[in-house]
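Here is the promised in-class demo. Please do not try to memorize the tokens; focus on the logic of going from shape to residues.
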């Protein structure tokens, strides 16, 4: 369709352990499934990064996510089994401080959870596609 905005309008904040999962692992399968569904990926700081550095990284991610959601983009957080509870709290607190409360899924790279998580993301993607942000209609109407 001429003038159609080609972006997915969906973003997943993803644990570093999932983004760097070994080939063939549940995390690798999840990462591949998320990107195949058209979700954009934003890397969360590695669990090994000191909290002060992670806090600065997360402040930027929170600002970016707030801007995304303000403009109608869907956002989810995907935590790895390797993500310590304290780091998960740091991520969610940074997002909450920015006024963002995306759906968060924990332990998504645990083998029995991969399919249900991908199914949930597919439902979210379909629902979001059915009601895209109003600004995309205006962008699609632009001559081009």
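The designed amino acids, position by position:
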């Amino acid at each position: 369709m001429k003038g159609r905005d080609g972006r997915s309008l969906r973003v997943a904040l993803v644990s570093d352990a999932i983004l760097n999962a070994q080939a063939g692992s549940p995390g690798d399968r999840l990462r591949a499934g998320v990107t195949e569904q058209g979700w954009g990926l934003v890397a969360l700081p590695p669990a090994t990064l000191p909290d002060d550095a992670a806090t600065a990284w997360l402040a930027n991610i929170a600002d970016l996510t707030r801007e995304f959601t303000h403009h109608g983009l869907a956002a989810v957080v995907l935590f790895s089994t390797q993500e310590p509870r304290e780091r998960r709290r740091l991520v969610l607190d940074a997002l909450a401080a920015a006024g963002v409360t995306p759906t968060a899924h924990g332990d998504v790279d645990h083998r029995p959870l991969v399919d249900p998580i991908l199914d949930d993301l597919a439902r979210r993607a379909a629902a979001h596609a059915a009601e895209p942000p109003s600004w995309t209609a205006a962008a699609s109407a632009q001559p081009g």
